[in-house]
Inverse folding.
């Protein structure tokens, strides 16, 4: 299923969407790493969303969602969760596909 461009957010060029965050100097998390962990936690804790196949990357405050969900409603829910998270400057869901079979 293809969604209109305005529903997709911004373009991104994520190379490794499911790569876990790397710790910065002295083991402290960067703002992007904290945002990634927070969005991942929010997606996992949402009882109405199956987030097992959603990858999350963050680059300069932009949350990049990838992987797949089973419905347009889940796609919109994941997008909304990421957009509503404090610290997210923008959200790209171009790499998050709907697998409705």
């Amino acid at each position: 299923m293809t969604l209109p461009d305005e529903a997709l957010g911004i373009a991104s060029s994520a190379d490794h969407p499911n790569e876990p965050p790397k710790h910065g100097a002295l083991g402290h998390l960067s703002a992007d790493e904290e945002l990634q962990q927070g969005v991942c936690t929010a997606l996992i804790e949402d009882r109405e969303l199956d987030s097992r196949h959603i990858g999350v990357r963050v680059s300069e405050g932009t949350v990049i969602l990838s992987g797949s969900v089973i419905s347009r409603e889940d796609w919109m829910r994941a997008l909304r969760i990421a957009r509503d998270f404090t610290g997210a400057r923008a959200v790209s869901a171009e790499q998050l596909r709907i697998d409705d079979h």
